[in-house]
Fold:
Amino acid sequence: MVDSITLGESLRRQGVSRRGFMKFCAATASMMALPPSMVPAIAASLEKARRPSVIWLSFQECTGCTESLTRSHAPTVEGLIFDFISLDYHHTLQVAAGDQAEAAREAAMHENAGKYIVVVDGSIPGPGSNPGYSTIAGISNYDMLMETVKGAAAVVAVGTCAAYGGLPKADPNPTGAVAIQSVVRDKPVVNVPGCPPIPTVITGVLAHFLTFGKLPELDALGRPMAFYGQSIHDRCYRRPFYDKGLFAGTFDDEGARKGWCLYRLGCKGPMTYNACATAKWNLGTSWPVESGHGCLGCSEPNFWDAGGFYQALSIPTSNVTRTATAAVAAGAAIGIAAGLANRAKKASAAKQHKTVTVDQLGEG
Amino acid sequence: MSALDQIAVRVETADRFAHNALPVLHEVRHALRRLVEAGESTVIDLHSMPFGPGDEEDLLAALGTGEVAAQLQALGESRVTETIYPGVWIVDHYNTHGQRIAFQIEVTPVPSVLVAHADDMADGLQRLEAALADPAEPECRPASNELRSQHG
Amino acid sequence: MDFLLWVRGPAFNIAVAIFVIGVLARLFEILVLGRKSLYSEPKGAQMGPGVAEIFKRSVPLPDIVKRGAVTLVGGYIFHIGLFITIFLFVPHIEFIHSVFGVRWPGLPNPVVDAVTVITMVALIVLLVHRIRQPVKRMLSTSEDYLTWLVTFLPILTGWLAYHRIVNPYPLVLGLHILSVEVLMVVLPFTKLMHTFTVFISRWYNGAIYGRRGVQS
Structure:
């Protein structure tokens, strides 16, 4: 399944000059969000890189992540990466192959034991849930995942569903969906969240593994720092409007037309870490805030339950009015009761008050 | 590219340099100063710049086009243009489908992608020697007819 | 992230419940207890002087200006700063709008930022003064220090969150909201209740002097 030639050799055989190879490395560096000064190191690594085997598992997902990646206009760099990666199994793309696809997966795992990458999209019903909620070829998601990752070099959880549970895990989570990293404990797991993730981010992570043979530096939530190290808020071009206190109040008012900050319209940019503000979508065409819609926070855990998409971040998610109304009634009742009890105590004290005459005082 | 270009985007802020084009121009200024004073080259990757609508156009309009425009064909087209500020180059890489894969400002005497590499030159020497060794052999003639007509 | 969702959801519910129950219980208790029966002839009105007193007491007596300048100035800077920080900062206004349905324009963020710093400095000055001034130190109890802390922490954490000094942002924002919830839970059962009772006590003093026909 995996060729023994290196990427450098592969490109030369395709007639790519050294100049073309350096252009490829510059584009790869840009795609991985690495500084241009790293191009020589990338060139040296790619020269020696060998084609890894990739197994793609799709579980409880909407296929948006696969669409985002494969349906993207796939610039040559990504195309080359994918030509170079041996995509040995992809459930959705190979759907017509049936059992033969499963056989191919098992063969790939066996031949490349310890070296293949497992890419997962979609969440899985947890070990404590009914496995029947999601199966492939009669095998439960959990079983297929645990069996496939046994010989893997690394696991890439693509999309918020795989990384943190995503939509299936949203309240009330009927299938008992869990994130991949909660069940895979003994292999390096990289989370590439987003609903879907930006395509260049997915391939950037794979390119990093391909180039350097290891996973990129990760943050506390397991996301590559190169793409998820900065919040949307800190990179948003509308930030000066936030700082000046110029906000859009509705989607068609003067502020919205002038491109002011969307905080009041529910933008979750301050709490969201992703590359949308810089890398943008559709090859740099635009991104939600630039199109006038607040960030949903789609690369964060539990973003579906984080309060309404059109409610500002400072607004609580609980039903305050109901609680407050009940509390008003309760507080008033307690206060009145306490007040009445105090008055009763005062009245009884007054009643028990014994009058004293001057003569009684003299008795001592 | 696609019909996305035909969707009219009206940016209401009429000020030039409304968002992030101006800071990038200053970064170019600092880089050019380093080049002039210390001979140090810089590459500014525009892929990760948080550009707002109209920023890229403003930036390119400010930099303009100077004396040199080069076109490369290597894994797709690349355009290297010197701006009106000598030493400041716009390097724009495209793939074979015509989509941009890298977009950089290089502040350097000559962008590295224009310089011929030792490996390619050695390879070219071998091919030239082979072509001259046996000019009668049909497969040793230059492959491109354009090249032939240029050289008579 | 789960922490942030918890403080914005269930924790806020609990804090609101305790806050509202506590404040209302104490207010009603005071009001239901009522006043002593007044048998003398009233020499003036009660309501007018009562309401006027609420505003008049904001102007300090000359003696206080001389003897308690630090407390007076520090206290005013703190209270005014707190008002601006809470009620004229747009994310807070959004929050108030979501609960009460009213909204007003806010100040630019850098202005609120500067005011917040001044407010924190005033609080620190007041604390140091409380510790160093012998009379205040002698009068201070643990409740005084506790209320200082639960008042200071929301301002500090809010400022840290705004400047994104602590990473990740959901953590520091969650801490800010949690510190406000702690303040809400503590307020009704400490001297911070003056937030509401100040109006009752000022009114009462004005009313009772007004009834007696004397200057308050």
In short: Confidence is low (pLDDT under 50) at residues 140-152 of chain B. Chain B has two domains: 3-114, 118-150. The longest strand of chain B covers residues 100-107.
